[in-house]
Model the fold of this input.
Amino acid sequence: MVALVQTLAVAEYLSFHRAALALGTSQSSVSARIKALEADLGVILFDRNTRGVRLTEAGRRFVDQVHDAMGILDRAIKTAGMQAHGEEGELRIGVHARHRGRDRRVRALVRRCL
Done:
């Protein structure tokens, strides 16, 4: 997961140095993790040269999908937290109305809640 976050940072800054500064880590750590990720994937994600880095086509596609996946993970974490704190879920209310006047009030209440 750390390698993926670092990959997103390098893709954003197009610099290992600036990505490391933004992440509060060393440039060598970022570089080593991304090199290891590239080796694991068997894909070069970044073209490196003396002027900086740029994404390869494979890297661009990978970063796009990792970015989408991180958004999904973020929503899943938020949803789980909200569920655990009772901020999200389902509330069922049962109402037994015997009088006609109550029927209208119940329907009005249901419409406002939906």
Remarks:
- The two ends are 39 Å apart (CA to CA).
- The mean pLDDT is 86.
- The first strand starts at residue 46 and ends at 49.
- Residues 95 and 106 are 8 Å apart (CA to CA).
